[in-house]
Fold each of these.
Amino acid sequence: MWPDRVGRRIKIRQLEVLFAVVECRTMGKAAERLALSQPVISKTIADLEQTLGVRLLDRGPQGAEPTHYGRALLKRSIAIFDELRQSVGEIKFLADPTAGELRIACADSMLSGLLPVTINRLCDRHPRLTFRVTQGLSGAQLYRELRERNVDLVLGKVAMPLSEPDLEPEVLFEERYVVVAGARSPWQRRRNIKLAELINERWILQPPDDNEGRAQVNEIFHACDLDVPHGAVLAASIQLYDTLVASGKFLAMVPTSVLRFGPKRPSMKVLPIKLPSIPRPLGIVTLKNRTISPIVQLFIKCAREISRPLSRN
């Protein structure tokens, strides 16, 4: 059969060379990256094209660009390299269950909440695990990292039902927001507050391009028949929120998971405001039809354990 014959002749090294040429845009730079000579790079590409019987690269003033045949081969090859990496990682983990690497993409709120708690617990149980964390603002950005297999899982808000058919979501709990003020804020002395009373205060809000967090905050104000206030500060950093709120001059709306799982913040006090219930599912997203490594399974199991109290609320 033609596919079997071609499959036996294609070598992993040839695909690696093709990847390098496309990423570097020139054969010279690809040769430097792979510590090979340029003639070897050229011959490797030529041999691969001869094996497949199609042209894989177009050479032009902007450098080497993949043809539609080349893009098709690269797309499938990403999965091949990822499965190999997963297999090698699984072998290492089976040989030493305390070691391995997990690559995670997550939103900023997860960096200050659920993620560090999960990492801490896993490191106690498996001291030689390492974690590579990629931060992103929107689900689309994080899912792109997952599809390109730059990360093993995404931790963040999950739109349910998830419209992307190639992604596999698991909801851990429903995220809710609360309004916080500093310990010295005059609003701390009040026992009952309506959100409308705070509309003209200095607010710290997520920037408009923070699609997930800002959308939920906007919905809360709109559900109270209020316009979203003009934010005095637009930022996604919970550390900045903490510092500014501590001054007593700013208010903020933050996820409950940050207060539950993050470090204790005596400078941040929850105001007694009954907000509309607009929960957003928070969970883990993986890629369908992709091998789930033992380390990913460990992370998911640990995140379930830690999230269980919130999942009952």
Amino acid sequence: MKRTWTIIGVKDVPGSFKWYQSLLGLPETAPAHDYFGQILDTDGTVLLCLHQGGAHDHPSLASADRAEPGNGLLLFFRVDNFEVSLQNARTLVAQFEEEPNLNPATTTMEFSLRDPDGYYVTISALF
């Protein structure tokens, strides 16, 4: 099995780390570094990597000041705990980008919101 590690540039790795763990109903842990962390599923699978923008010489992570965060990127998570993620999301943001609804293409419930850096995040029920 091969897996993709999606890495996004963020302003505050520890803060974003906590935000994503809360949204996905994961146990709270600290990132490995103040400039990089991996959001892990309970089985150790990497779900998302957070990298401080401008911390290293990565061309596409130079600085949030040089590009609009999330432009051209949709973070789409399929979760087996949809209701938990929905409840958690309501405590993280004042407004959803898309209220919970049935997606006719996937025939699953989903909702969308923005993370602290402006990335568009969709949560979809696994079943």
Amino acid sequence: MGDVNSTVAATLAREAGVKTAHLEAGLRSFDRTMPEEINRLVTDSIADILWTPSPDGDANLLREGVAPAKIERVATS
């Protein structure tokens, strides 16, 4: 959970005018009882750039109403 908490905290820097990106955006467990899932949703909703690792990440973000211009597929390993 710590890495996702750090991610959402850093993304809040956006409020200070800092542009932010989320690597591995769009990944979902669909279990909203998990704090990590809530942090993923919050992070993806406020980050400026969303780097996704897979087509399902893209699809999840589009289904959630994210502008396609914010989504960019990248390779992760």
